[in-house]
Automatic annotation (TrEMBL):
This is Ubiquitin-like protein ATG12. It is a peripheral membrane protein. The keyword Transport applies. The keyword Glycoprotein does not apply. It is found in: Preautophagosomal structure membrane. Forms a conjugate with ATG5. It comes from Synchytrium microbalum. GO terms for cellular component: Atg12-Atg5-Atg16 complex; autophagosome membrane; phagophore assembly site membrane. Belongs to the ATG12 family. One of its GO terms (biological process) is piecemeal microautophagy of the nucleus. InterPro entries: Atg12, Ubiquitin-like_domsf.
Amino acid sequence: MNSPGASSPSTTQLPPQKVVVRFKAAGNAPILKQPFFKISPTQKFEFVIGFLRKQLGFQPNEPLFLYVNSAFAPAPDELVSNLYKCFGIDQNLIVNYSTTPVWG
């Protein structure tokens, strides 16, 4: 029996098939021509880091700093689905990037 405050299965929101990640340059970082990419929610944030490095043509030894919502740098083992669920804005996960540290 459902309690009055419990949500029914028909109203429970399913996780997205893909998460739209919007990359926003900060500081002196190069701007991507296409800033929106769809990424599997089961990927770890380390995949996002590697994906962005590839898009920018950066080598592994070149500095690259990523932040969610201009606020914090997620751990590389954090799931994209968790970040989207907690910090997604307008159906996007905003990932800011820079070649130098810009936020704490």
